[in-house]
Amino acid sequence: MNxxxxxxxxxxxxxxxxxxxxxxxxxxxxxxxxLSLDNNVGNIVTGMVxxxxxxxxxxxxxxxxxxxxxxx
Length: 72
Hints:
The chain is globular and about 30 Å long. It has one domain. A hairpin with a 2-residue loop joins strand 2 (about 45-55) and strand 3. Helix content is about 20%, strand content about 40%. The chain is of the alpha+beta class.
């Protein structure tokens, strides 16, 4: 059983984060979010850490790294 999330899993969480935050907290200078994801392998829940600094969202998720600048 492969427990490591796929790029598709990461994309789903990233898109959900975009929808939930409605603009990546534009008024927040620095914040840390910890989200849970059920990766559909039994009841295993894995974690993702997203850090927002200014307008830039940094995601580090099991080796997948995503950087998004809301100003671009």
